[in-house]
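Lab channel / #folding
Pinned by the channel admin:
"Please post every new chain as: sequence first, then the structure tokens as a reply. Keep commentary short and put observations after the output so the thread stays searchable."

First post following the new format, from NK:
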Amino acid sequence: MSGDRWGEKGDVALGGHLESAEALPYFADLREITGPFDQGIDGTLLGARGEKAVCLHEIFERQADQTPSAIAIECGPRRFSYAEVDAEANRLARLIRDMGVGRGGFVGISLDRSEWPIITILAILKAGAAYVPIEPSLPDERLRYIAEAAQLAIVVTERAHVARLRELCRAEMLCIEEYQTQRSLYSDCRLSRNETHVRPSDICYVLFTSGTTGRPKGVVTEHRNVVHFVEAFNEVCDTTSEDRVFQGFAFGFDGPVEEMGLA
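Reply from TO:
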């Protein structure tokens, strides 16, 4: 952004936000920061092609509308189309909202590798919340710290990890196996922005550093930031709906966002 567009108001607003952030005990409280800086920048940040700013899950929805029958996820012998993934994420998003979590909420994900981490990420974002990946292999102390620092409302997990997670954090557990027995109760229609009130300036996800120099630190990423990255990266790589992208990064890093955005 050029200095002319930023201006004195931007300097003053940014200074105020930095002072506010410094006084906050938890990174989760950053969602309380609002004001002219947030309102002003919302109007100037558009998509990489000059389109209206969108949220990360809306990029997936756009692709699902364009190529519903194309394969979105392939996991071993299991294959899922964009339409199937979108519908499943919509159902799970409605369950998350029924559990009282929406815009401004933080939902942990502690799942082994399968199609479910990707579906769950989309569901959390569709519900209006932000996701916090928690690798099941993390030591107890680190897992407990992340759950507390992020003030998680829910942790989406599987039966194999429920007992341990209940001992280490106070969040409500959403077990994927239990969800699958009641999934038919939830509509597969998308939630609209009028229902979730989610904005491109809202938090998309939070990743925690390794903590090698002290306590792990939560790094907050907004929808608009990751959308700019994903759209720009797609233009460089020029992927199509016929291409396949290997998902190799652990979900505790931001590499999977790049991989999912390319697919």
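NK: The beta strands are 71-75, 78-81, 106-110, 130-133, 154-157, 172-175, 203-208, 218-222.
TO: also worth noting, Residues 24 and 54 are 28 Å apart (CA to CA).
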